[in-house]
Task: structure prediction
Amino acid sequence: MICKTVPVREGSDAVLELYILEKSCEWKTYEKRPFVIVCPGGGYAMCGDRDSEPVALEYVGARYHSAVLRYSIRPQESDPPVGDAPFRDLFAAIRLVRKHAEEWGADPDRIILEGDSAGAHAAAMAGVFWQDTGRFPEAGEEAKPNALVLGYPVISADADGHKFSIANLCGTVDYGEDVIDAYSAERHVGSHVPPTFLWHSVCDQTVSFVNSCIFAQELHKAGVPFELHLFATGWHGLGLGKAEVGGVEPNAAQWFPISLSWLKAMGLAPAD
Amino acid sequence: MKVFEVRDFCDTDAFLQVYLREKTYEFVVHDKRPLMLICPGGGYTWTADREAEPVALAMIRAGFQACVLRYSVRKTKEDPGLGDRPLHEAASAIAYARAHAEEWGIDPQKITVCGFSAGGHLAGSIATLWNKPERTGVPAEEARPNAAVLCYGVLTAFGPTHAESIKNLTGVEGPSEMDSLYSPDSNVSADTVPVFIWHTAEDDCVPVESALKMACAMRKAGRPFALHIYTHGWHGLSLVTEEVGGGPAEAKSWFSVMLDWLESMNVGTGY
Result:
């Protein structure tokens, strides 16, 4: 396995931690495996370990290549707000994977973004803005994601949004309409958004499940294929819901295998 | 996760491929994980990739640290028999891991050796001979595995077995006086570590008698063991997942059953 860390773009400290499966003539080698870029949660103040490597390794177990993107963050209030840096990091990461697709044995048409919480916000932003090269220099066709898997996502900067996360982007919790518009992914959905899988716990006390609903609603209006799973149990940040990451939640933990069967239904899974 | 090779743990050409989760306080267990030392199969003429990295990564996902031992093999019949060289390498690998427990973030008394086919012979050998430094070349307490998992292993030198594997150790074409030295079931004693044995009854390469005889020997010696025989399945199933070539649905359960058994033997993650 190639297990190394690479920078994604100049002028940013963001890195991509790679998990590229070894090619061997001994087993079912897929020259073109799908690739999952994992965006951990953390309110744009940190990139959590709980929903980074464990998730990446779980996709590896399902025969995908994967990588964790440690995107730009604002660890303390005294640090400058990150603005659009996390999204530029993500677009740059997608470009990097596409550029190395042949070398890594990855399929450039099956690049999937998996994100949790603020990481899901970043993925959703990439999903709605990948065509907007005016605002994001690294956007464009080569930065287009082919699917989104969003776990307890922050979607909106509006009423149901997570003010703390958005404050780390713009610098203050008292932000106005222009900030709301810039960072509310649901306002920019169109038919160009890739197929999206959403899951959330209804009892999430930190990021309201309404975020997932409003995104799904806009995807539906735009005719974008989507799937939405709302679990009665669980909590914010449960990741894979296994004992290792701090809490067993067998009900909501089903999100992972369900996401695999959804990816298969979308034609994005590794070939049989 | 760090993935790296160790080439200087032993005085031979054997090497280790190590897979270590990094320590982070966000995880419940992060600095005293159990370790799985994996011995791939290959009849003692090569070591199979199918029983190496995929198994290591599955153990990592289960919360273990993992390490593959690429032990010495006998490439041609012109080469002498391997004798106890692989055994010495397995013992040295365990001792090395134990000595690096803090750096590797492992519990030094939760080291399990898991071998497939000829690698199962090797795992069965260290499970039964760890306390014989005259054979392993390593002090007993350093060489001791805390448990062993034997996957369609060559566990006997007598009766229906994979004779090739044994010959690659003895260096002799036919039966030899040395065979009992290399027959794991003959070496079971009161000091043998707990073993988990699994096999398929249809295995036409390493007959299931290996598993049955090993279990009987463990019973006779009063040592803890588990035995799981699946009706269907060819030799070399590894994880029985799509990635490694599939296999009968019934045999897929061995991995999760093994994890539960490791917990019961106190060499699992503890959660």
The CA atoms of residues 262 and 268 of chain B lie 5 Å apart. The mean pLDDT of chain B is 96. The interface with chain A takes residues 1-3, 19, 21, 24, 26-29, 48-50, 53-54, 57-58, 60-61, 63, 242-245, 269, 271 of chain B (CB under 8 Å).
